[in-house]
Amino acid sequence: FAAAVGMALWVAGVPEREQAPWRAFGDELGLLFQIVDDILDGDGYVLAHGEDGARALADEAATRARQRLADVPADTSTLVDIVAGLATRTS
Predict the structure, then answer these.
(1) What are the pLDDT digits (tens) for 30-82?
(2) In terms of Cα–Cα distance, which of 59, 71, 57 is closest to 24?
(3) DSSP state for residue 73 in the 8-state scheme
(4) With left for phi above 0 and alpha for psi between -120 and 50, is residue 44 left, alpha or beta?
């Protein structure tokens, strides 16, 4: 996700000095996606932390992703909805 966010920032012409909150969000979203994928597949983070531990890590990553979006000077309501949907995904 971080690479995709970087590409989108480049295409959108966002100056480098304004990219940090977007990149931080991309990092957290990527982590959230990976943890949820591991929960659904029963591997990775689930094997290392147990299902409850992996769910707690996903919740923490979702919280951090929303916090990163709060630092973005734009309407991020759709991205907030994506984070919420991903964080609660069960299939």
Answers:
(1) 999 999 999 999 999 999 999 999 999 999 999 999 999 999 989 999 999 99
(2) 71
(3) S
(4) left
Reading the block at residue 11, the tokens are 């295409």
Sequence-distant (≥ 6) Cβ neighbours of residue 82 within 8 angstroms: 29
Sign of CA dihedral 70, 76, 80, 83: negative
Residue 34: φ, ψ to 5°: -65, -45
Q: List the structure tokens of 25.
A: 């969000």
d(CA 23, CA 8): 10
- H helix runs in the chain, sequence order: 2-12, 20-41, 45-70, 77-87
The dihedral formed by the CA atoms of 32, 35, 39 and 45, expressed in degrees to the nearest 10: -160
